[in-house]
From TrEMBL:
It comes from the Eukaryota. Interacts with VPS4B. Interacts with CHMP1B. Interacts with CHMP2A; the interaction probably involves the open conformation of (polymerized) CHMP2A. Interacts with CHMP3. Interacts with CHMP5; the interaction involves soluble CHMP5. Interacts with IST1. Belongs to the VTA1 family. PANTHER family: VACUOLAR PROTEIN SORTING-ASSOCIATED PROTEIN VTA1 HOMOLOG. GO terms for biological process: late endosome to vacuole transport via multivesicular body sorting pathway; protein transport. Residues 10-151 form the Vta1/callose synthase N-terminal domain. This is Vacuolar protein sorting-associated protein VTA1 homolog. Residues 254-291 form the Vta1 C-terminal domain.
């Protein structure tokens, strides 16, 4: 069924969903959920839009039944961790390629897809400030590198010398790079925030533990060996937490338990990619929260 013109802003999320149907159905589910929620806000009354959105709802219901034994679908905190981990894995890959001055179509697409998945995270609640910055940076980088290559220029790696160039940041909203490098079947606006930040001040992780291949090209985890991790520093373990007991008078709210659970899920996701440093950091955050009531 053709996408009505009024719903064109959601086309890139639907395309991302389609691309991941076999590779990662969890990504597909939440991309469609985000597209459906956004589409409802755009136009849920026009007959063609209503018909399209009802069909999308039916797809979501069908997927929910098929994936009823998948914790990433049945438990929001696990789904949140899954999408965030995947988005940041894409970001780290693209950032690593960028800093290594390896500029190519797949790294541009990885930056942009990462920004879309960070949008999708909003189905779970407000984005963290860190993810908002990652999203802006990823969109800016995708546009900047695409335009450089298109114009025969050599992009500058890393976040330096990016301030003030807002034209590139808005290019995707006109469908140019997005349609040219395969994000969408045709031109159309992309919802995005034009960069208003001095990117020299944004703390972008160095991407030292990015996998050797883009996740966009990796087979399903059950079919492939884990990527070989690059050397990374492991944070110092806080030994005071090893024998931690809950301090007297500490009252934990349901939100505290949810946050602690989220930290543990993040740690579990990190271990899937043999990222020991991130696992330790999140487990220490969970322990501190449970013993002191503070992050």
């Amino acid at each position: 069924m053709a996408l009505p013109a009024q719903l064109r802003p959601i086309q890139h999320y639907l395309r991302t969903a389609q691309e991941h149907e076999k590779r990662d159905p969890v990504v597909t589910y939440y991309c469609r959920l985000y597209a459906m929620q956004t589409g409802m806000k755009l136009d849920s009354k026009t007959p063609e839009c209503r018909k399209f959105l009802v069909k999308l709802m039916d797809q979501l219901e069908s997927m929910k039944k098929e994936l009823s034994d998948n914790e990433s679908i049945t438990q929001e905190v696990v789904g949140n961790a899954h999408i965030e981990n995947y988005a940041l894995k894409l970001f780290m890959y693209a950032d690593n390629e960028d800093r290594g001055e390896r500029f190519h179509k797949n790294m541009i697409k990885s930056f942009y897809t990462s920004s879309l998945l960070l949008d999708v995270l909003s189905v779970f609640g407000e984005l963290s400030e860190e993810n908002i910055q990652h999203r802006k940076y990823a969109r800016w980088k995708a546009t900047y590198i695409h335009n450089c290559l298109k114009n025969g220029e050599t992009p500058q790696p890393g976040p330096a010398a990016m301030e003030g160039d807002e034209e590139a940041g808005q290019a995707f909203s006109h469908g140019g790079p997005a349609s040219e490098i395969g994000f969408a079947p045709g031109p159309g606006p992309v919802p995005m925030d034009p960069p208003t930040t001095n990117y020299n001040n944004i703390q972008i992780p160095p991407g030292a533990h990015a996998p050797a291949n883009s996740p966009a090209e990796l087979p399903h985890p059950s079919e492939a060996a884990k990527p070989v991790p690059a050397p990374r520093s492991v944070p110092t373990v806080d030994h005071t937490l090893l024998n931690a007991q809950q301090q007297g008078g500490v009252h934990l709210t349901p939100e505290d338990f949810t946050r602690a659970q989220k930290f543990c899920k993040y740690a579990g996701s990190a271990l899937q990619y043999e990222d020991v440093g991130t696992a330790i950091q999140n487990l220490q955050k969970a322990l501190k929260l449970l013993t002191t009531g503070k992050e």
